[in-house]
Specification:
The chain is an all-alpha fold. The chain has 11 helices and no strands.
Length: about 260
């Protein structure tokens, strides 16, 4: 199939739909880049430029989601800052590596981690998604969580795809943060470390702005829809979407 002209009506529709859907699933779960990266590449962007350009929409949708959760009083800014700090440092290393190293070597590790995550969500969801009202832990209670967050940030800076899923599972499983509040913290952390990696990609001239801004605009709308969904539908509905996106991310890596 020939590449689309990124300014054509068909390309704009494709990018808009991909952005809307990605903003929704990234805010509630993760893995939205499985939609936006192929859409960007269908519009003629090579993989490295699609990877960089995709970060524009992730930053914008994260800001949109954070505002939505903040207005609903579900966002603890102090916890968000503490969780974001080690991921920011990791993202700096990961995004630098992404500009110089192929991601292929990471794929077997990612598949194994996603499979483990899907099995856990299926058989022991409470292990990764505690019920609302469960007492949560701070980083000072689990200091070993800091290197874990650093590694997630490094992965996010390197590849981005599915990073929200790992961060969500980490906050639920290690810090015992309920799913709604974990999602609120996740969008802040992802937005913060993606802004770092976006800066690196801008310096490396790996951004194509026109399609990136189209995806970003609709992803912001998708993020707002996701916030409303998570606040009204409850943990089980969100958890089902998380499971679907974990499986989809695993398949996406395998068939890439």
């Amino acid at each position: 199939m020939p590449d689309l002209d990124p300014t054509s009506p068909l390309a704009l529709v494709l990018l808009s739909i991909a952005g809307l859907a990605a903003g929704f699933v990234n805010t509630l779960a993760g893995g939205g880049s499985l939609l936006t990266l192929p859409a960007l590449m269908l519009c003629g962007l090579p993989a490295d430029l699609a990877n960089g350009t995709n970060r524009v929409s992730v930053v914008v949708q994260s800001i949109s989601g954070a505002v939505g959760y903040g207005l609903a009083d579900k966002l603890d800014l102090r916890s968000a800052a503490a969780i974001s700090a080690p991921t920011l440092v990791g993202a700096l290393f990961g995004s630098y590596a992404a500009a110089h190293v192929s991601a292929a070597a990471l794929e077997p590790v990612i598949v194994v981690m996603l499979l483990a995550l899907s099995v856990t969500l299926l058989w022991a969801p409470d292990a990764l998604a505690p019920a609302e009202g469960t007492p949560s832990l701070r980083l000072r209670d689990r200091p070993l969580a800091i290197p874990g967050l650093f590694l997630i940030g490094a992965y996010g800076g390197f590849l981005q795809a599915g990073v929200g899923l790992f961060l969500l599972a980490f906050m639920g499983g290690v810090l015992r943060i309920d799913l709604v509040r974990a999602n609120a913290l996740k969008v802040v952390a992802v937005g913060a470390f993606t802004a770092v990696s976006l800066t690196v990609f801008i310096i490396a001239d790996k951004i194509v702005w026109a399609p990136g801004l189209v995806v970003a605009a609709t992803s912001a709308i998708g993020a707002q829809l996701a916030v409303r969904y998570s606040l009204t539908r409850g943990r089980d509905a969100v958890l089902r979407l998380v499971f679907v996106m974990v499986v989809a991310s695993c398949v996406g890596v395998l068939v890439k």
